[in-house]
Predict the 3D structure of the following.
Amino acid sequence: MAKAKILPRDLTTSEVAERLGITPRAVRGLIQRGHFPNARKLPGASNPHLIPLPDVEDYLVVREARRKEKSAAVPKKE
């Protein structure tokens, strides 16, 4: 089996969690739901996923857009 090549712009599950302010478990959930389409798991049962930095940047853009949509939809209190 070929070894997974770690690129300089790949982040581990823990690194992504730290950047997003969430838990590694939540990052794994995002991977399962397809938010990081190019993520790949390192060989071994307990090894982390590697997530390309552009996937994380794309996710942040989408997350911010959703937050703006939600805040715009909430009526302002007078």
